[in-house]
Fold this protein.
Amino acid sequence: MLQGRFRVTETAPEAESHAGSIPSYRFLLLLAAAWMLSPPAAAQQGLQLKTQPTLILVPPSLKEQLPLFVDADRLQGRQEGDIEAEGSVRLRRRGYAAHADWLRYEQPTQEINAEGNVRMELGADVLEGPRLRFNLGTERGDMDRPRYTLHKAPAVVGERQVFREADARGTAERLQFEGPGQYRAERTEYTTCSPGNEAWYVRARELTIYRDRDVGVARDASIEFMGTTIFYSPYLSFSLHQERKTGFLTPHYGSTSTSGAELTVPFYINIAPNMDATIAPRIMTRRGVLVNGEFRYLEPTYRGEDRVEVLPNDDVRGGEQRWAYLLRHAHSLPSGWDGALRLQRVSDDNYFTDLGTKVSQTSQVQLPSDLTIGRVASWGYAGSYNLDAVVQRWQTLQVDPTTPVTPPYNRLPQISFGAAHQDLLRTELDFFGQYSAFDHPTLVSGQRGLAYPSLSLPLSTPYAYLTPKAGVTLTRYLIDENTSGFATQNRTVPIYSVDSGMTFERPTKLWGASYLQTLEPRLYYVYIPFRDQNTIPVFDSAEQDVNFATIYAENQFSGWDRINDANQITVGVSSRLIASDTGAQRLRVGVAQRYYFEPQQVTLPGVAPRSGDTSDLLAALVGSVAQHWTVNAGLQYTTDTSQVQKFNFGTRYLPRQGQVLNLSYRETRDVLQQSDISAQWPLGRGWTTLARWNYSFLDHRTLEGLVGAEYNGDCWVLRLVAHRFVTTTQEAQMSYFVQLELNGVSRIGSNPMEAIRRNIGGYYRADARARGSEDATPYPRY
């Protein structure tokens, strides 16, 4: 027996083994003498070798025979035989490390037996217990009364492995090693809470951990929360690190005023890394069972999503069958072509208001179904063109009998072509052409062909630009008069415009910071002669709202059935503050107004022409006005009558993530007057309040309200939310959400996240221990 600390290196040589005990110091002396007498070839050539201060990470794909290192206060053994070590024993081999008071290693079988303060490190996992039996070759064995800690993977800093905070931990009466990356714990407790926090755990008769599949399977399992059993299942499967896996997802509980108490039990099928499906029966106490199915796929050249919902018997509506479907597919075709298909339909007008739980669903009144194919390609060295075709039909939902909705025209089909060349004898050539076949069940149908070529001459310097442009629209209509033929109408309208602007800059200092301030005036003149268009039907035209985008447009109508007559100039000026050090825009303000030199003659049916010689004055302010404060404000003011037509003001206070306050006010004269307040605000001790109040002063009612709270308990989050929103002019819907998120295992209750995000701008999710992104959930995600 040798006293002190020595090292034995086992390299598994093929030479014949020799029995007997070899003193370690003699073995080391022989190695040193051999090295001095026979220097390596590299040294003879003048290469200098340096000691490596840390272990080098060897790629795990290498399959060479690995050395074994053993350190101990006392050790004994024989070459190619057994090694017995005692006192602060440490055994290391790539991927493994064992610490113990006593250890025996049997080299022929690669069996380890260890006792006393045993600590076993298997890759990123750490297991501790009083006794260990483990085979380095098969990775099979067992440990008594272990404490285990699981990590997803170690981080690499330089050439060292640094373990992050534990992903999960637990205890067991016995743990079986069942091969590479597989453990089976008997009578175990499992949790993702940090040490000292026993808020919740999974208690199971047997828990099998599949590290290669990142899955845990518990049998005869219960979830204990705050000392109380809140869930039991004879079989429970979950993802160790919130990856996708086949199995039952956590049930959703909830309640709505229209359907009563609800329970949804989703079953997720992980078909392939790029393909999955979900089947989710939704049990409603007042209506019955609605079955929801979803199938998703993702390939390099195409992707899609299919959803189907069926309620065989709606008890509220006398056993009526109700259904809905949505099919979406996008495809990248050869030669630069792209295609997309969207099909959607519901069984009745009130499907979303009765069965939807989101405002985005209940507010839908127009459901488009369409097939689109298109291509974008280059044209010469400075040109490009695009071609697309669409066939589109609509389903219009008459949700509110007091406000009927007129269905839009179906397009059967519509083909559009656009081309541009940016350097044609120093000019820019643009062309837009379109053929549309409009169909409507009650209104006049017809066909429209359009061609709009234009030529512009851009003239620019670093501080100014001037762009004159001339074009002509050629339109031909074939109008179905419900007779034996079509009525033909032609329209030719020339369009002339001149766009010009300048940019002035100066350095300035505000709030103790350096900025570049700009002053950017702009003039935009348009001339379009009058053409009588009163006999042309309106297929897709509407009057555009006046804003900073449309005030610099040629045509004040959307679509092509009306082209306004114009002899007008738009005058605008804007100013920006740009941070000198980063180049980021801090603040932008602008004003603009259009001046008419002739009265308006082209109008839409039933709409009176304008009466003044100026448009409304527009003003806007966007940016950061103080630390943590941002503002977005806009004003539309009629100078002829000195009246505010539209006004909106919004501000956000965001001092840090998870602490936000939004205040806004919107007003449209005689139409809308609303305030909107929302907030996410920490209250301390892990609690955060959630609130939103959208109020209409004209209707004297709350349009949408949300109140709730979150509690972040380090490894669990509790969310309590009540949400109310108006579905029609006479009705409103109330929903309640209660969700308990147990980090890395499951979410129990109803999911309020979509309602929270949509109602509170700037909301930051209180994720348990802030682990991963907000989409890192047990639910399937691409």
User: Anything to note?
Assistant: Residues 1-58, 155-165, 770-782 have pLDDT under 50 and may be disordered.
